[in-house]
Amino acid sequence: MSQSKSAVIMDARILGPAIGGAFRKLNPRTLSRNPVMFVVAVVSALTSVLFVKDLVTGGGDLGFSLQIIIWLWFTVLFANFAEAVAEGRGKAQADSLRKARTETQAKLLTGDDRTKFKLVPGTSLKVGDAVLVEAGDIIPSDGEVIEGVASVNEAAITGESAPVIRESGGDRSAVTGGTQVLSDWIRVRITAASGHTFLDRMISLVEGAARQKTPNEIALNILLVGMTLIFVLATATIPSFASYSGGYISVTVLVALFVTLIPTTIGALLSAIGIAGMDRLVRFNVLAMSGRAVEAAGDVDTLLLDKTGTITLGNRQATEFRPVKGVTEQELADAAQLASLADETPEGRSIVVLAKEKYGIRARDMATLHAAFVPFTAQTRMSGVDIDGSSIRKGAIDSVLAHVNQSISAGSGARPASDAVRDLQAIADEIGKSGGTPLAVERDGRLLGVVHLKDIVKGGIRERFAELRKMGIRTVMITGDNPMTAAAIAAEAGVDDFLAQATPEDKLKLIRDEQAKGKLVAMCGDGTNDAPALAQADVGVAMNTGTVAAREAGNMVDLDSDPTKLIEIVEIGKALLMTRGSLTTFSIANDVAKYFAIIPAMFAVFYVAPGQTSGPLQALNIMHLATPQSAILSAIIFNALIIIALIPLSLKGVKYRAIGAGALLSRNLLVYGLGGIIVPFVGIKLIDMIITAVGLA
Amino acid sequence: MTLNGWIQILAYCGIVVLLVKPLGGYMHRVFNGDRTFLSPVLGPLERALYRISGTSEREEQHWMTYAAALLVFNLAGFLVLYFLQRLQGSLPLNPAGMTAVEPGLAFNTAASFMTNTNWQNYGGESTMSYLVQIAGLTVQNFLSAATGIAIAIALIRGFAKASGKSIGNFWVDMTRCTLYLLLPLCIVLTLVYVYLGVPQTLGAYINATTLEGAQQTIAVGPVASQVAIKMLGTNGGGFFNANAAHPFENPNAISNLIQMVTIFAIGAALTNVFGRMIGSQRQGWAILSAMGVLFIAGIAICYWAEAAGNPLVHALGIDGGNMEGKETRFGIALSALFAVITTAASCGAVNAMHDSFTALGGMIPIINMQLGEVIVGGVGAGLYGILMYIVIAVFVAGLMVGRTPEYLGKKIEAKEVKMAMLAILCLPLAMLIFTAIAVVLPTGVASIANAGPHGFSEVLYAYTSAAANNGSAFGGLTGNTPWYNITLGIGMLMGRFLVIIPALAIAGSLVAKKTVPASAGTFPTDGPLFVGLLVGVILIVGGLTFFPALAVGPIVEHLATISGQTF
Question: I need a labelling partner for B522 at 20 to 30 A (CA). Which of A78, A437, B465, B499 fits?
Answer without folding.
Answer: B499
